[in-house]
Amino acid sequence: MEKNIVGEHHNKNESHPVLLTHNIFIVWKPEYNLGIPIIDEQHRGIVTTINSLSFGMQNHYVREMLSSIIDMMYDYTHIHFSIEEKFLEKIDYPHAKTHHELHSELSNRLNRAGRDSMLHKDSSQFMSFLKEWWISHICSEDLIFRNHLLTLSKH
Length: 155
Description:
By secondary structure, the protein is mainly alpha-helical. The chain has helices spanning 17-20, 37-58, 62-90, 96-120, 123-154, and strands at 2-3, 9-10.
């Protein structure tokens, strides 16, 4: 038996009590996969970020992590949008320009949400933005080009 950080004794194979009280906000499901390994991996990254922010909010230490999460999302969008847009061009996706415009708008909204959340020291606005991004863009718009890719692979 070893002693954990809250002073309780437990077997090292048991979960930490604090971790047991947290529910994963978004559980990755196979239907989220687009079938493009690098993009799927990057999408799992945003899920990880959302879940980390949710965990911090639930356990009252989000202030220590908010700035890092916002910075991480800035970097993520720069890399991810670039890769996704190059991929869409490569497959001659007919709505690539529109998708690029959606990415530009998301980048602008990310900047506003991050700036406002830091200014007001309130993570809820940034979390709302991330949830909306997940639901309306990744789980909706990105699935449209997955369907386009599937029709290409059938020909």
